[in-house]
Amino acid sequence: MKLVTSTRDRLPLAGVLRLGRPSDIWFKPALSVVAAAAPPNLALLVLGRLDLAMYTMAGSLCALYAHNRPYAARARVLAWVALGMLGGLATALVTASLTGSAVVLVTVGAVLAAAQKALCDATRIGPPGNVVLTFISSAALFTPQTPDRIPGHLALAAAAAAWAWLVGMAPGLPRPHGPERRAASAALNATAAYVETAGAGDRAGRDSAGGDPGDTARAHAGAAVQAARHALLSARRPTETRAALERLVVRADIALAAPADADPALLRAWARQVRRNRPVPEADDLTGLTGVASEPIPPHGALWHRLRPLAPLALRTALGCALAGYASLALGIGRPYWALVTAASLYQANLTLTWGRGVQRVVGNLLGVLLFAALVPLAHTGEVALVLCCLALNFGAEALIARNYWLGSVCVTPMALLVTEFAGFQEPGPLITERVVDTVVGALVGLVAAVAVPDRRWQRVVRTARTGPRTLAATGRSQGPRPDRRTGETTEGARP
After folding, report:
1. How many angstroms separate the CA atoms of 148 and 82, rounded?
2. C-beta separation of 128 from 23 below 8 A
3. Over the stretch 84-113, which tens digit does the pLDDT of each residue have?
4. How many CA atoms lie within 13 A of 477 on its CB side?
5. How far is it, in rounded angstroms, from Cα 176 to Cα 231?
6. Cβ–Cβ < 8 Å for 134, 446
7. To pair with 145 at 20 to 30 A between CA atoms, which of 21, 175, 184, 323?
8. How far apart are CA 389 and CA 205, in angstroms?
9. pTM for this model (two decimals)
10. Closest of 173, 170, 180, 171 to residue 280, by C-alpha
């Protein structure tokens, strides 16, 4: 009975499919990917070469990254993402041109997936992480290729990636401080919410021994303040707007420390004004109290030192992807890269999160193939309809995925299936069957690999956190997710 209860606690079903609130900028990545993909696809449509759309799509998908970063940092991140995409694509194309062995291709795909996972986690590249890069390289491995065509295909991907870079940077022209403003506004609003909940409890003299209902609000506010600090520090170039935003973030930080003395109405008023493209409200310069303005970004350290702790995760990814691909081959599936990508998409910081992602992936993909079956008659009316369906699904995927991963997968699955038809219409029945089988195989084998290669570091952290709630309470530490000092993201689920 105890074993059953323990397993249920670690592999829960409740809440896995629950929808969250949409991101406050949900439409920006959705519109960006459409703006990045539409011109290349329409140009290929006019030229009658939609069979090359896979390569332009590889570059266009770079527009999905770095939407929360200041534009100076975004420029660097998008450039690195484009280089990483081109490196994985080049490796896949060269391998595909040298061998037709499916076993070798799956093996190379698994190694690439592990490298992409480790690098994305080590550099904290952010959503959508390694999954898009793995999808691109894995699909390219199983596309017929000859050495003489590789330079042209890479040139198409590079051109589309350059256009995606421009699309990602374009909003900086009318709103050069947009990301910093959003981060500061979120910090002010989250702090106001904490002041209204836990702060009110403090003023009423609530007995702390009975538990503070503001713990969650405080954790969210702390993470939002840290994210705002990081956004302002990573912007690097000093400006009057940045200095004014720093002063407001200091006020949020002080309110977080002393909620009884804070005015939530004023914090929310500042948040509303900051969010719009208006002059930033003036506040007293109290940066000396917290050091926001002068605190440097902590050094990341050598890439190798950040990669070493991720070795178990990389091994788990390589093993899971390889076994999923081999199992798909054994079942006679013609596109084993779908199983490989499914396995690569599962791996999170611990087994519980990996299990949840597996459930979300299976549910989303199964519903996605049903949507594909409904869209096929429309998409097969002509190439224009095919391109428009893919663009609409791209928008839907990015608009919905912030609510829950499975909801975005409902659009991602038919989009990926329709992309395979750019080279020519296919019978939908075999496509649907192969995708369903690969999804289930990839999820099951991926979970087996997650169990077979556990992360002992994470288990030690969990055991330590569970041994002494009195110690945590005595030290005043919140038991909620803690924000990472460098990124402002919560460490829960972010990395091992």
Report:
1. 22
2. no
3. 999 999 999 999 999 989 999 999 999 999
4. 11
5. 13
6. no
7. 323
8. 58
9. 0.81
10. 180
